[in-house]
């Protein structure tokens, strides 16, 4: 499994609804947080090693009603 972090910019007033949709509909979701700053939400997803990250983001995340923009971070190694 590989972890990715995605920040979401949402339409005004839609961040909580977007978070609810992500949690309810995407089994890849590990965690999602509301944030301050340029983006409204930060989510962590675990994808299978063979998964196409670009396809996941463009077809599963950017198409959610209320999502204006995303910023994706790909991770390499987890430290504990």
TrEMBL record:
Gene3D superfamilies: 3.30.70.920. It comes from Martelella mediterranea. This is AsnC family transcriptional regulator. Coiled coil: none annotated. Pfam families: AsnC_trans_reg. Residues 6-77 form the Transcription regulator AsnC/Lrp ligand binding domain.
């Amino acid at each position: 499994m590989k972890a990715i972090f995605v920040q979401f910019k949402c339409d005004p007033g839609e961040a909580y609804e977007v978070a609810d949709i992500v949690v309810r509909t995407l089994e890849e979701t590990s965690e999602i947080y509301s944030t301050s700053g340029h983006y409204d939400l930060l989510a962590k997803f675990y994808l299978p090693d063979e998964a196409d990250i670009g396809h996941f983001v463009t077809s599963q995340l950017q198409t959610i009603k209320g999502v204006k923009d995303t910023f994706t971070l790909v991770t390499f190694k987890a430290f504990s």
